[in-house]
Amino acid sequence: MDLNRFKTPFVAIIVLTIGIILGIEIQKVVSSDNQRENLRKFNEVLTFADKYYVEDVDTQKLIDNAISGMLDSLDPHSVYIPAKQMEGVEEQFRGNFEGIGIEFQVVNDTLTVVSAITGGPSEALGIMAGDRIVKIDNQNCIGITTEQVRAKLRGTAGSKVTVSISRPGVRGINDYVIKRDKIPIYSVDAYFMYDNQTGYISLSRFSETSTQEMLKALEELKKKGMKRLIFDLRNNPGGYLNQAFQIADMFIDGNKMIVYTKGRRSEFNEEYHASKAYPYEKLPLIVLVNSGSASASEIVSGAIQDWDRGLIVGETTFGKGLVQRQFMLPDNSAVRLTISRYYTPSGRLIQRSYKDKKDYFLNVHSKTMNDGLNINHKAEKDSSRSVFKTNAGRLVYGGGGITPDYIAASEKLQPYSASLRRANLFYIYILKYMDHNGQQITRKYSKDFSAFRKKFHFSDRDLKDFVKFASEKKVPFVKDEFNRDKDYIRAQLKAYIARDIWRNEGWYQTLLEVDNQFKKALREFSEAEKLSKL
């Protein structure tokens, strides 16, 4: 037998293998040397600037800007978060903070309570919407800034602070000694029965507590007789991916895929499937979305659309299909780096193009689509986009957010109404209005929101007074624009009263009366049931 026949290829394979291994190792060394050289170059530039620049240099600011500039060359969602911003960012998604538990605004230099947060110490002591805090720990706080309010009222759980309150209709100043505590930040903004069969839940973000909050809301609505649900994800920017697939699991049965991720590194490739059985998997479902619905919101709405589980109503979503991981730095700042892309069950990448970063956040979706049913998704047909199929074989498109199954554009405000809102005049006017009429309205309606919703209305005389008030506050009256938005203006004023008495539940229910997208969704449950084969 001629052993040399096998020897030459075998040796070649060994040599080739060794060459590949050596090449990889050399590349690592070269790459490492290159990185060290670049770091040395950066350090030298920083040293030169600190030593020779014509003015004193804030080196921390230079480094922060350098890191931001570095990440700016990547995708729009890889960002640097300075240490001073991290506490607020973590708090938003952690679901709690430590303080006295009020929502507030500084109105005409006066610290004003918008509402006492449910479950917080201020609510327990009877602090109410409309209360004016005039002193904190016996120090006058007229003219206080928002940042100063947070610094003075937040603190370690168990510590105490004294606030002096002036309340409309009550003589004198009353002191409240408040023991700070952990204050819950809810991601479910509101949930209620809109009518005797329709439940409504609004979720503002996907935080650590969102799954538990959703389950609580669904259980309570079921007890109240919910037979169908409108799940509002409009303007929900996303949050934790694990919360998104757990919430989607509440509506999707079996072991169906909800989302999967792919990255350059294999450890970031993951699949998420439905795994638990819930009593809401056959519930007729409509999901409301708009251009402010992003990331985790698109995971939920994309999975529901791909499995034909419910009807998606509203406007095309933002189009963010990138997953970030947060890496903490020694000074408590952080970088969020995109580590993978996520895909819906049909294989769609939701991420929009970000070649032009200047337009990425400003012009979310430029294409105008006509209102109406879009079950077969002809409205967004685009030869440049990848085509996919839902479980029932409907065509859907990747690379540009989630386009609804029923398109319903939000109504655009006239410039006059936008100016009123920008100047916060709805709230400021109602603050004054409730000083004079609050006790009477509360006596008449506080135990019967349904009566308030049906019977209380701002008269034309009230609206004239509001217009006059707005003019005095430097928002000149524009008759034509006012007439176009009259129903909206009336509803906004009424909603601020409802929030004073019934909080978010009152606020949302009042505004839904003039919400074009919600009203259209309410009429499309037959389509949702047909789509889901319920």
Q: How would you sum up this structure, described in words?
A:
The chain has helices at residues 4-52, 59-72, 83-94, 121-125, 146-153, 210-223, 241-249, 296-306, 357-360, 415-422, 425-445, 449-455, 460-472, 479-484, 486-512, 516-522, 525-532; strands at residues 79-81, 96-99, 102-107, 110-116, 132-136, 139-140, 160-166, 173-179, 181-184, 188-193, 198-203, 228-232, 257-262, 270-273, 285-289, 311-314, 322-328, 334-343, 372-373, 387-389, 395-397, 406-407. Strands 10-11-12-15-16-22-19 form a 7-stranded mixed sheet, sandwiched between helices. Strands 3, 4, 5, 6, 7 and 8 form a 6-stranded antiparallel sheet that branches. The protein has 534 residues and is of the alpha+beta class. It folds into 4 domains: 38-73, no CATH class; 96-184, Pdz3 Domain (Roll); 188-410, 2-enoyl-CoA Hydratase, Chain A, domain 1, CATH 3.90.226; 415-520, no CATH class. Strand 7 and strand 8 form a beta hairpin. The protein contains 17 helices and 22 strands.
